[in-house]
Design goal:
Pfam families: Glyco_hydro_2, Glyco_hydro_2_C, Glyco_hydro_2_N
CATH topology of the largest domain: TIM Barrel
CATH architecture of the largest domain: Alpha-Beta Barrel
Shape: globular
Number of helices: 11
Distance between the termini: 61 Å
Largest sheet: 8 strands, parallel
Structural class: alpha+beta
Catalytic activity: Hydrolysis of terminal non-reducing beta-D-galactose residues in beta-D-galactosides
Enzyme class: hydrolase
CATH superfamily of the largest domain: Glycosidases
CATH class of the largest domain: Alpha Beta
InterPro entries: Bact_Beta-galactosidase, Beta-gal/glucu_dom_sf, Galactose-bd-like_sf, GH, Glyco_hydro_2, Glyco_hydro_2_cat, Glyco_hydro_2_N, Ig-like_fold
Organism: Arachidicoccus ginsenosidivorans
Strand order of the largest sheet: 31-30-29-28-27-34-33-32
Number of strands: 36
Number of domains: 3
């Protein structure tokens, strides 16, 4: 009865509560070409684990929160469909969670972070609407300092709708053959000092001999206190991966003051002698510690694991650390048969381990940005990534061009993707969308913004042919070029990647039931295709469709999804598939 009473009170607050909008904070970032981009703030990690409060676990749920309070149990993260709930297409489901804040947080700023809510949401805290968000595969953050209570329980209600413009542009529910609504990735609160890092990005660049390197940090400092601040300095320290063995350190005084509520962008850098380089075969990582000093007091500190890695496009080849690379890859969906598009525990790391065992060195995150857990695993275990913006078959979305919401969604989600993942050595390529046509109308501007925001990585428009991007981007591609593809594109002026190719037999279901050995023949064609790609310098590599089955076992007993694509995640097939791939690409081990 306690839960039910609390839920009803929260429902009353939700309907009648006083509304004070916090919304998602925009910050200005000035690029190296002096262009100002407005990006959504995603604060760097908290300085210590004690300053984070996970809200994962059991919540209360309503299939229609505008009509009934949240009284049913549901697990977060997770899809509601995979937990047996049915929500009407245009209804807002409701999630409710109560929490208490540590007293030690009282003089700090409180940020509420969602790594993924699919796909349109409203955030209500203690009866007040704090923000709304559109986009199912990108993280967002809300400053809730003015809404929290320091005594007693805080009541958090998240209203979520699956059907939205974001779902349509991503073809998310269409692709999964079921509505994938819910709080699908982790959610937590974080407390940060009033003078803090609002943004931090780390870059590495080698000298002409690729021996020594420059480590630089672009930072934005926020002053969220009620007075201006002048006596600040920034200190950057580099440690070995253990976080204890110091390599280098440098401090820099901030010349300009920061007004109350203001932001200040700075850069700090130093030279590193002969750092160990990062690549998939040698995933050497370092730890960076970045501190803000207010006089002789520590104001804020963040940590980030980085790798010394430099990407260059030279003619029709891609070089990493002055060596030409060949991508032996797979396309990867975020999926589990019983959980849908919400993966738990350490499954991301298990995926990467299996792919590395099969001599795979490259994953394409088809067709949306992944959670940070996958990126972290790729950094540690050694895996290149093509990170894809959440736009799939977007040309089918019935929204008139020039619609402000449409434009804002394309830009915001693309910049959110780059902002969240750009400091990771495993991220090799940005893909601005999948098989979405209409490059000039839809994606030309977002591709330009990606280049302005991150000029250190090549861009790709993942399509059916090399002319789809009007020749704008550093890398071109071709989906399913056939065995003649390497010969056809051997004289390409740009690097070309077959980031979908050698599709697994999946749709001839009756044939597969009667003759499962049909799949074994796949390895013959793959080996021949790969050998031809390997011998052709202009062919950057490819991503097999696909590395993982995209099947969903719904609670009602129905199985849905596009098909059993996966060579590594297909149950009893695993050993045979890994063996085929190892033998086919052994020469590049």
């Amino acid at each position: 009865m306690k839960f039910r009473f609390t839920a009803i009170i929260a429902f009353i607050f939700l309907i009648f509560g006083h509304v004070v909008r916090a919304q998602i904070q925009k910050i200005d970032y000035t690029t190296t070409d002096h262009e100002t981009l407005k990006i959504n703030r995603i604060s760097p990690a908290a300085s210590s684990q004690s300053d984070k409060l996970s809200l994962d676990g059991q919540w209360l749920f309503s299939e229609n929160v505008n009509k009934a309070p949240c009284t049913k149990d549901i697990q977060v993260p997770g899809e509601w469909v995979m937990q047996g709930f049915e929500v009407a297409k245009d209804a807002y489901a409701g999630y409710q969670k109560s929490f208490m804040l540590p007293k030690s947080w009282k003089n700090k700023r409180i940020k509420l972070r969602f790594d993924g809510v699919y796909s349109e949401s409203e955030i209500w805290l203690n009866g007040q609407k704090t923000a709304s968000h559109l986009g199912g595969f990108t993280p967002f953050e809300v400053d809730v300092t003015q809404f929290v209570k320091w005594s007693g329980n805080n009541q958090l209600v998240v209203k979520v709708k699956c059907s939205s413009l974001a779902d349509s542009l991503a073809s998310g529910s269409q692709y999964a053959a079921h509505p994938i609504g819910g709080i699908t990735r982790k959610v937590y609160l974080v407390a940060i000092p009033k003078i803090n890092f609002a943004y931090a990005d780390f870059k590495t660049q080698f000298d002409k001999d690729y021996q020594n390197a420059t480590l630089s940090a672009d930072i934005i400092i926020a002053n969220e206190q009620k007075a201006s601040e002048k006596d600040l300095s920034v200190r950057m320290e580099l440690f070995m991966a253990d976080g204890k063995t110091k390599v280098m350190a440098k401090s820099a005084n901030i010349q300009a003051g920061i007004e109350k509520g203001g932001l200040l962008q700075q850069n700090i850098s130093f030279e590193v002698q002969k750092p160990e380089k990062w690549d998939p075969e040698h995933p050497n990582l370092y730890m960076v510690k970045l501190s803000i000093m207010d006089g002789d007091k520590l104001a804020d500190v963040i940590y980030k694991r980085i790798g010394f890695r430099q990407i260059e496009v030279r003619g029709n080849q891609v070089f990493v650390n002055d060596r030409p690379i060949k991508l032996r890859g797979v396309c990867h969906h975020e999926t589990m048969p019983l959980r849908g598009r919400s993966v738990n525990d350490n499954m991301w790391e298990k995926d990467v381990e299996l792919f590395r065992e099969a001599n795979v060195n490259y994953m394409r995150t088809s067709h949306y940005p992944p959670p940070e857990e996958l990126i972290d695993a790729c950094n540690r275990l050694g895996m290149f990534l093509e990170v894809e913006a959440p736009f799939c078959w977007a040309h089918n979305t019935p929204v008139p061009l020039g619609t402000p919401l449409y434009h804002t969604l394309l830009v915001d989600q693309t910049l959110d993707m780059v902002n969240y993942f750009r400091s990771n050595p495993s991220v090799l390529i940005w893909s601005v969308g999948n098989e979405s046509e209409k490059y000039k109308e839809y994606f030309k501007e977002t591709a330009k913004l990606v280049k302005a925001f991150d000029p250190t990585r090549p861009r790709n428009f993942s399509q059916w042919g090399p002319a789809a991007d009007d020749g704008d981007l550093e890398i071109t591609n071709y989906h399913y070029p056939g065995p003649e593809g390497p010969e056809k594109f051997k004289n390409s002026k740009r690097p070309i990647v077959f980031d979908e190719y050698v599709h697994l037999n999946a749709y001839n279901r009756q044939e597969l039931v009667t003759d499962p050995g049909v799949r074994d023949a796949w390895g013959i064609g793959f080996k021949s295709m790969w050998e031809s790609m390997y011998r052709t310098p202009a062919i950057l590599g490819g991503a097999i469709w696909a590395g993982i089955d995209d099947s969903f076992f719904l609670p009602d007993g129905k199985a849905v999804g596009y098909g059993t694509w996966g060579r590594w995640m297909g149950g009893v097939e695993k050993s045979l598939s890994i063996g085929m791939s190892k033998k086919s690409i052994l020469r590049l081990k």
